[in-house]
User: Fold these one by one.
Assistant:
Number 1:
Amino acid sequence: MRVFAGKLSIANFLTFFLITPLILIFVYFLAVPNPNLAAGSDFLSYYAGASIIKNGNANLIYDMSTQKQFFEDIIYPLKGTITNRFISPPFVALFYFPFTFINYFIAYKIFFIVNLGVFFLFLYLLRRALTDMFKKYNFLYIIPFYFFPVAMTLFMGQTSYVLAILFLLIYLLLVNNKSRETGILSAALLIKPQYVFAIPFLLLLVKEKRQFLQGFFITTFSLLLISLLLVGPKALFDYFPFMLSTENPDFGNRAQQMFSFHSDISYLFFKSNLSSIYPFILNSGAYISFLYLFKKRMVKMTIKTAFILVVFLTLFFSLHVLNHDLVLLILPIFILLESSLKERGRVEVGRLIAPILIFILPSLSIFDNTFAAICMLFVISSLILIKPSVFEIR
C-alpha cells in the first residue's frame, strides 16, 4: 500500500506540475488583449473567406485584391503587410460562417476555446483507442499539450485538430475493416487538399476497395457540389491556379520552414520556388516509388505499423506542410509509445527512441531550417519499409 501511495503521489505531482503552467497560459491569453497575435493568425484567412461569402462576393473569393480588402477591413485599425490568404476549398468557409457575426478579435478568442474543445475531443478518442496505456499512465493526457504543433495550432487558429481526428477515426476504421466508411472520411481530408497524398495509401490498406471508392467519390462529389453552389464555377476553376500562385515567401510560405520533401528540394535546388514544376515532378516520382514499395512491403506489417507509415509518408510528400500540420504526428507517437510497454507494464527503452525523436522533430524549426527534421522523417519511414519488425506493433 505504501508503494502504491508513493506511486500515486508522484503521478499526481507530475500531473499537477505539467498542467499548472498550461492553465496559467490559457487564462492569461484569454484575459489579456492581444490584437497583434489575432491579426497575424491563420484564423484571419478562414474568417475572411467566410466573410466574403457572407457579404455576397463569393464569386471573388479567390481574387487576391478582394481578399486583401477584406483582411484590412477586418483587422482595422491595425495596419501592416498582409501575408495571409484564404486557400481552403470553398466548403471549409461554411464552418467559420457563425464567427463572422462577431467582432473578429472576440471571434478569435472564442475560436481558441472551440479549438481547444476539439483538441480535448481528439484526446478523448485517442484514449478510447489506446485505453490500457492511458489507464496505466494518466499523465500522458497532458503530454500532447507540450507538443510544439499543438500550441501552433491553438494560437494560429488552424484546423489541424480536425484533421488529426479524421486520421484517428480512419485508423480505427481500418482496424475494424470498415472500407466504405474509410473512403468517406478519406474524402473529408480534402479540408486540406495537400493530404490527398494519403488516399492512395489508404486505398491499398482497405480490403474492400470498391466500397472504399464508392464512399470516397460520393463524399467528394458532395463537397464539390456544395462548393459549386457556394461560389460558382468560375471561382471554383480559379482555386488551384490561385493556390499555386500564392505558394511563395510573399504569402508566408518559406520553403526552409516547411516539413516536406517538396519544400526541401525547392529550397536546396530551385531557389525556394515552391510553385516550380521541377520540384513537383521530382516529388511525384519519389512518391510513386514509395507507393510501390509500400504496396510490396505492407503485407509484412500489422495495420497499426502500416498506418503510422501512412502518416509519415503523407507529411513527407505533401506540398504544403507547416509546423501546425505536424499535429498528426501525435498519432504515431502514441501508437509507438504503446508498443514500448510490455505485457507486465515494463518499458522497452529501445522502443522509446522513435516516439521521442518524433516528439522533438517539429521543434527543429526554431533553427529556421527543417532539413534535419525532414531527414529524420525520411530515415524513420525508410526503416519501417525495410525492416518493419523493428517498429512492429501488435
Note: The CA atoms of residues 86 and 117 lie 24 Å apart.
Number 2:
Amino acid sequence: MTEDVPLIPETAPFSEAQRAWLNGFIAGLFSNGSAVGRQSLATAQSPASLPEISVVFASQTGTAEG
C-alpha cells in the first residue's frame, strides 16, 4: 500500500528553500525505511546507563538563564 506524502503548496507563505526543507522533513516522517543506527524503544538504553551531561550557556549582557 502506497501512502501519498503531503507537500507544502507553492502558494504557502514560505521561501523556496524553506518549502524544500519542509517537504523533505515531511517525506522523512512518512518514510517507512529504517535509518542506520536507529534503535527501537524496546532496545534503547535506559536512562540510568546514559552518561550525565551538562548544558551550559551564557550571555555578554548577564541575562543568561540559570
Note: The chain has a mean pLDDT of 75.
Number 3:
Amino acid sequence: MDSAGDVFRLFANCMPVKGARRSTICDLQYHRFDFIPNGLYYILTELKGKTVSEIKAVFDASQHVIIDEYFTFLQEKEYGFFCAEPELFPDLDLTWMAPEQITNAIIDVNEQSRHPYESIFDQLDALGCKALQLRFFDPVSVGEIEKILDSTQRGGLRHIELLLPYSTEFSDDTLKGLCVGNPRISGVVVSSAPKSRRMEVQGTGVPIDFTSAPCTSPACCGETSPKYFVINIGLFTEAQEWNTCLNRKISVSVDGTIRNCPSMPDSFGNVGTISLSDALMAPQSKDLWNIKKDQIKVCRDCEFRYICTDCRAYREDPSDLRSKPLKCGYNPYSAEWKKSGEATAEAFEVGPPADVY
C-alpha cells in the first residue's frame, strides 16, 4: 500500500454502524450496505484521522496485512479515499428536521368503515403529510379504490401505498392500470394471494407484491425483515433521535378512531367528531415519537438499527415500551435470523485485528 502517510476518509454519505457481533457501512447515497468486522469499525471511528502508519503502530505486525486488506476493500467498494488534508472533508450533519407536523399516515378500512375521505385528506394536507398507507381488510373493488384516490388529487400527498386483500378482479393488468392512472401510488401489496410474487409497473418502477400471508386487521403489521430496510439519509438521520415508525405519524382506524398507530391502545378522539390537528393536541399523542433505537433493548446493539423501522405496538415485553419488537427474528449477538430472509448484502469476511477488544 502506497498511502501509508495519508489519512483514509469515508465519503460523508457512508456511515459505519456498530453491532454486537459485526458492524455495517451504510451508503446513504447509493442505498446499499455491507457488513464489516467490528475491528474495522474501531479503526474507522476510534482511530479516525490517523494515517495508515499510525494505525498499524497500534497493532501487532501480524495484523498489518489484514489492515491493508481492510483499506483495499473500502477503496474497491468506493466507500472512501486517501487524502493528505482530511479536514477539508467534513462529516455529514446527522440532524433531522422536517417542516411538516405529520409526515406519514395510515387509514384502515373494512366493510363497516364510513370515513369522510375528502375531509381526512384535506386535513392531512394541512398538516403537511406526504406519505399515506391505505389498508383494506375486507374485499374492495377497483372502482371503490379509485373513488377514494380521486379525493387525493388536489392535495400534496407524494406517496400512497395500498394494502389490498386478494380478489380475482385484481389481475396484473388491472393493478398496473390503477398505478398508471394514479401516479401517487408508490407501492401495492396484495395479501392472501394464491402465491407470493412481485412485479413492477413498466415505466414507473412501482412494485406490486403478492403475498400468501393474510392481513385482516392491524395485527398483521409490525414485522421486522431485511425486505423493509430503508437505506437513505432521511430515515438514517431521523433514527438518531426519533422513532422510525411512530415519529410524526397519525392514523385513522376502521371505526374512525384517531391514534398514533392503529395497533396502539391510546386514542385521541374520532375523526367524525374531532379534527386531526385537535387530536394532535392531546398530551399523549407524541409520547412515543422520540423513543429511538439506541434506547431499545437488543435493538441498541444491532448493526441494522438506523435502517430499520421500529414497532412499539408489538413488543417482547408488553409492559416495557423499550422492549425489543416482538416480530423481529434477528439476534445481533449471534448475527442470525430465526426465520428465512437473511440479508443479502455481501459480507466482508476478513477478521478484525487482534487485541482490539
Note: Residues 64-76 form the longest helix (13 residues).
Number 4:
Amino acid sequence: MLHLLKSKILNSSARTLKAGKNILTMFIIKGVSIVVNLAMVPLLINTLNTDRYGIWLTITSLLALFSFLDIGIGHGLRNRLGTAIAKEDFSTAQKLVSTAYLALSFIIAIILILFLFSNQFINWGQILNSPAVLNVEIQGLMLFVIGFFLINFILRLLTSIMYAFQIPAFAELIITLGQLFSYLTILLLKHLNFVFSLKDLGIILSAFPLIVLLIFTLILFNGKYKKIKPKFKSFDIHLIRHIFSLGVKFFLIQISSILIFQTSILVIAHVLGSSSVTEYNIAYKYLGLLTLGFTIITTPFWSAATDAFAKKDFVWMEHAIISLKKIWWVFCLIGVFLLLGSNVLYKVWLGTTIKSNIQLLVLLFLFNIIQMRWSLYGMILNGIGKVKLQLYLTVIQALIHIPLSIVLTNHFGISGVLLSMIIVTFANSIWPVVQFNLIKTNQAKGIWNK
C-alpha cells in the first residue's frame, strides 16, 4: 500500500514537473510565434493593401470552416495514444498510430480527388465577395491553398502524437518554424522588390508549414518515434472504432466551434465588406493574446489529465484547477492593461494605418474572459474524455449564433458579431465547473459522466 502511494506521488510530481517545463518552453516558442504573427500583419497589409489582405483573411477563415475534415481523428488519437503510453503499451500505440494515419490518408485522398474535379466549377470570387478583376487570380490561388490544406491534415497527426507524449512545446516549435520561414521568405522577396500577387503569398504561407511538418515527420519516425512508426501491417480495422468513438465527439465539437468563431468573419465580409474584416481581425489578434497566452499554460494539462485519469489521480487534477484559477485572474488583469493601453500599442504595432476601436476591444475582452474560463476546466475534461455535454451545448450555441450574428451585425456593425458570441458562449463559464466537481466527487451520472 505504501509502495503504491509513493509511486502515485512520484507520478504526480513528474506530471506537474513535465507540465511546468512545457509551459515555460511553450511561452518562449509562442513568444516567437506571436512576434512573427504580429509582424506578418503590417507586412501583408503593405505588400497587398487593406482590401486584398481582407480577402486573404476571408480565405483563411473559410478554410478554418473545414478544419474538421480529419473527423476528430487527431484528437481521438491524442487521447487513446496518451492512455496507451500511460500504460506503457507500445504495441497498441503503434497500431493506433498506423490506423490513424492510414484511415485519414484514405479520407483525405477521396476529398482531394473530389476537389480537383469540382474546383473548375466553383466561382470563388462570388463566394469571397471579391472584386471581379481578381477572380482569375483567386481561382488559381484556391487550387494550391486547398490542396496544401488537405495534405496538411495527414502531416499534422505528428503534433497529436507529440501531445500524447506530453511534449506540446515540441509540437508548437514545428508549427512556429513553418510560420517563421513563411515570414522570412516574404520579407526577403519584398526586399528584392518582388511584386506579389495573392496567389504568390497564398502559396508561400501554405507551403512552408507543410514542408517543415514533412521534414520532422521523416526525421522523428526514423528516430525517436521509430517504435510507433506507422506501418501497413500494424493497421487494425477494429481500432478505427476505438479512435472514432471519442474522435467523432471532438469532430462535432470542432464543427460547432468553427461555426461560432469563423463564420463571424464571413458574416462581417458579406454584411460590411473586406475592410471591416481587417479591423475586426486585427482587434481579435490583439486581445487574442490573452487567450493565446492562457492556452499555452492550459494545453499541457490536456494530455497530463489523460495520464492522471488513467492512473485515477484525481487529487492532481483538483490541484491543477486551483493553480489555473489563480492564473486566470492574472490574465484578466493583463487584459485590463491591454484595453487601457490600446491606443499607444496600436500605434507602435501598426503606425497610423488602423486605429483602435475601444467598443470592439471591450467586447473582445469579455469574450476572451469567457473563453479562458472555459479552457481552465475544458482542458481537463477533454483530457479525460468527458465531452458529450460539451458536444450538445456547442451544437446548440452554433445554431443560435449564425442567425443571431447576422441580425446583430446589421444593427450594431462589427460589435454585433461579438455580442452574439458573448451571448451564446456565456454558459461555458458555468457548466464545466459543475461537471468537474461532480466527476471529482464521483457523483457524475448520465450525460455529466460521458
Note: Residues 2-449 form one domain.
